[in-house]
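Weekly structure sync - notes
Attendees: PM, LS, DV (DV joined late)
Agenda: review two folding runs queued last week.

Item 1: First target. Sequence and structure tokens pasted below for the record.
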Amino acid sequence: MKRLLLSLPMIALTLLFYQCKEAKGKESTDALEASVISNEALIKKGEYLVTSIGCADCHTPKKMTDHGPEPDMDRWMMGYPSGDSLPKIDKDEITPGKWLLFNNDLTAAVGPWGISFAANLTPDETGLKYWKFENFKRAIREGKFKGLENSRPLLPPMPWENYRNLNDDDLLAMFTYLQSIKPIDNIVPNFVPAAEIK
């Protein structure tokens, strides 16, 4: 009987230990499931924002259809296609107060600043692969090229001034979504200052 009485606390402690361990394991599993769900929700929200505010208008090459230009989903967010060339530009027509021009798929723009090319926003080495969230925030909030502190300003037609008031949650969702899409190897050319347009 004494042995049984001494064994009961040991049995109770052993059961308690395994229940705690099981509960802790369940907490870890629940936390893991919650983080996966959160990441999926973040990507979904990011996709909604990226498509709603028109990022593809400039960052995705277009296909001409009966309804006009539509995004080429095989080249989603790859920016200006590196192999393309622009038609001859009449420099007299792009001085202030005159024309602002776009190429046929809307990934390059020409104006008094020169020629700007839409960036590759895919998670490829030639795009956003090595970007940190801080770079993305700085690019959108401060209009800095590649989100680098001492870089040149982003050029028209990038409307970063319209997007700079997006909150951190929105920007994180957009960045997370862009990091989740298909990477596309596409080196976008550097901008051409107006004085160098031939």
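Item 2: Second target, run right after the first with the same settings.
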Amino acid sequence: MSEFDSANGAGAITDVAGIEVGHFTHPRRPTGCSVVLARGGAVAGVDVRGAAPGTRETDLLDPCNAVNTVHAVLLSGGSAWGLDAASGVMRWLESQGIGLDVGSALVPIVPAAVLFDLLVGDAHIRPDAQAGYAACQVASSQPPAEGNVGAGTGAAIGKMFGMPFAMKGGIGTASVTLDGVTVGALIACNALGDIVDPDTGALIAGARTGDGAGLRDTRRSLLRGEPPLPILAGTNTTIGVIATDAQLTKAQARRLAMAGHDGLARSINPAHTLSDGDTLFAMSTGLAPRTPGMTVLCVMAAEAVARATVRAVRAARSLEVGGLRLPGVASVSHTR
């Protein structure tokens, strides 16, 4: 497990009342899944900006559609195979008596999104229903672990010029609190692009130089005319959950998810590419007695997402598997 937690003042998505997080990290390959639980239910929305998403139950979150409440959101590695882990989340929720009452049964509502990590280790090992169930079993309101855990275990970033020059991605969390209202984010960063400091624009991590020791700067390299390698659509993707205790409608939750993508655009360059399936969910537990209004909430959401994205990469540790080396931030020069 990563030594990173939220003790540095960045906060965590679990600072939001009614939210719990659990990770499952696969013991046989760098992959896993992460669940964000709302046992009391949460109004939810989603916004998909990447061109190659892998998702489940996103149509349900359209404000025009009937079901208003979700009980969990799953983030998983394993590409489309990882969507199977949501079945385990449903099974666990049912065992706890949590779900939509349809008269004859309880049906837990569990939207999900996946990222592609099949190039890291044995692609035949991926999160399944048992993994989703296990993530729920360890979920708590404590600040979740960050870095090489859960959905971020096999994540990599800076892949525009090939996996041999990429770096380790991961999962991170942050929160912002204003006048008794909290907005938090949990982000699994597996971006094609580089990671930048949203306050200064300085490169933090990304595609490395030919000798592997420094940062190449994907944006400047592309603008100089350096061609990217052919990239299979969907082999990247940053996914995450924004949560707040402010009371929101489904339409407002969708707007909050949309605003969260501003945070991705500040911290990932380039973001939302044809090879990324970038997807953000938003959840509202409605447990705060007040709200600062949607304009302020959207600013808070973008900030929490940007901070959590940076945390995901700063917390990630170097990984070597099957001849592939993905260094962490501390292993590459000219990072800040």
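Discussion on item 2: The longest strand covers residues 32-48.
Action: LS to circulate a short write-up before next sync.
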